[in-house]
Amino acid sequence: MNNSDTSAILSTEDHSELMQNIANKTSSQFFHLPPVANKSLEKSRDEHSQNGKIDADGILLEKFERSSQDPALILYTSGTTGKPKGVVHTHGSIIAQVQSLTKAWEYTSADQFLHCLPLHHVHGLFNGLLAPLYAGSTVEFLPKFSVGGIWKRWRESYPTEGSKADDATTVFTGVPTMYARLIQGYRAMDPELQAVSASAARNLRLMMCGSSALPQPVMQEWEAITGHRLLERYGMTEFVMALSNPLKGERKAGTVGKPLPGVQVKILADEEHGNEINEAGELCVKSPSLFKEYWKLPEVTKESFTEEGFFKTGDAVTTDKDGYYIILGRTSADIIKAGGYKLSALEIESVIIEHPAVSECCVLGLPHKEYGEIVGAIIVPEADVKRKRDEESKPALSIEELSTWAKDKLAPYKIPTRLILWDSLPRNAMGKVSKKELKKILASEQ
């Protein structure tokens, strides 16, 4: 609040006490928003529609043309690799992005989004709200993420085979942990409810996933249950979305697709020798949706761009034979420098998560005097496996068991040499694990 120089806070009744206290501690004025009754928007919609389609260009562009380079939003980065920075987006960058997403994923006024993501990051704000509203779609909010609530809403949308409610959900976008929990909820249903739920989910037009890497077992099981191959894409607070698997065409597991129209990308090659990651380097992006600056950080802003105006993402990437981009992880957190090799933590995680005893895992480089770093794995065991092993007075998984299992799946130097078992992984509001914080925790424990 203080960093952004906020001068006014608006709050509904539900949060008024909390926000009033914050206003008192800052230089902000507090304004209470009275309740707003639900009213039909059909009249307003009709006034700006042509043959049932929203004339978004007519409504928005004429108003923003004169102020396209003016600041419109300050969004803060998630802070997984450093202190959060205020990212300033302009009216022009917002319009460019929502137009791009609307076209790429074919959002229309016939779509209804079921929204349960936070609005302080670009996934929930742009993909799930601003772009749908630009297209004239309806956005329905859940108060919070609820496994039972989402399955129930889909069953209400498509109550029987071939039937569709007037307010049926057509698009859903979430983070990997949401889909993993939805799968757990599905497994807990009785067979009859499973059949109805899976049938309903198959009727949605589009399901997407982002904000962190999607484990392939989750993707495969979700496709088996619902028939949907989740559309993965890649974005950052600084430019929103830059790469995407196609709406129509092959969606490749483990990739984030190709550049969206109008987006230029290049890879700054890693010139160090002994690089295990073939033709990998830092992804750089130039896009009409690029942010204007980091708030109050002119030097950091300048250092974040190449001379040609490409933004340096800090993410290591490579491409497959078809030009689909593969995210290897943050250059500062997900690239492990072990004994002369550079290893992708995300690649190792994608293998370990397939172990039957593993519910969640986080792979990171841990300091080592001889090798620089060693491969460490923090694992959250599957509840049933942990319960059974506890009864036998054994750990849910041992490093020897993991090594034996992984020897045919990973090169020897990629197999973790340190295993840590935890009940859960600490995550931020977007479901992301901060490896920087994990390393601090492990260092303090040592």
TrEMBL record:
Gene3D superfamilies xrefs: 3.30.300.30, N-terminal domain of ligase-like
InterPro entries assigned to the protein according to its UniProt record, in alphabetical order: AMP-bd_C, AMP-bd_C_sf, AMP-binding_CS, AMP-dep_synth/lig_dom, ANL_N_sf
One Pfam family of this chain: AMP-binding_C
Protein name per its UniProtKB record: Fatty acyl-CoA synthetase family protein
Domain AMP-binding enzyme C-terminal: 347-432
Signal peptide: none
Family: Belongs to the ATP-dependent AMP-binding enzyme family.
Domain AMP-dependent synthetase/ligase positions: 2-295
